[in-house]
Amino acid sequence: MLQMSLPRTGSGPALRGRIGAGFSPAPHRYHLYLRAGCRDSLRVRIALALLGLEGDVSTTTLTPDAPDHAGLRRAYEATRHHHTGSLTVPALCDTWSGRVVSDHTPDILDDLALRLAGRPELSPPVPAAHADAVRALLDPAAPRAERSAALASVEHRLAAHPYALPGDRPTIADADLWVALRHPATAPAPGPHVRSYLRGLAAHPAFRLPA
Q1: How much is the pTM?
Q2: Which InterPro entries match (predicted)?
Q3: Residue 111 parent element (H or E)
């Protein structure tokens, strides 16, 4: 079975090509390899739905021992000659050349929003404090005190407005926060604003997705 790694366990650096830098933002040109049960894959899948790109970017969700692993392996080999390392998802692939464009999730999310969808309002800058809180909630190795502080920070933020960032609609930041809150590691129980936030997003079509 081909090894799938998230986070990366292979020795090679992340592939960080960008749409617009040698890869034109053409509809139906790109394919995403995702993995069932992968948090970053879930972030990308929600972003596709929020951005209305589900009809423009095709996807393959990999499962253990599935034959679809071979397609991702071929894309890596086309990108790195004689690639023998692990495969990483999410991976954004160019169907015209058969190569992997990027397996760096933040770049993939930016390119989906800014280069393919042309929706910068759905990928606004994220305050450093919010980004730090999301990272702490996603990191099972973070100390319990750090995770508790992160959850308290999110509770305080959600008391002021209904989404991760100020505005009247969910953004890519909500994909990140929702995934972080949906399967948290050990931490105190969420407060009333976090619970209300999760209930509200559960009714949004983009968030009614399999893990």
Answers
A1: 0.89
A2: Glutathione-S-Trfase_C_sf, Thioredoxin-like_sf
A3: none
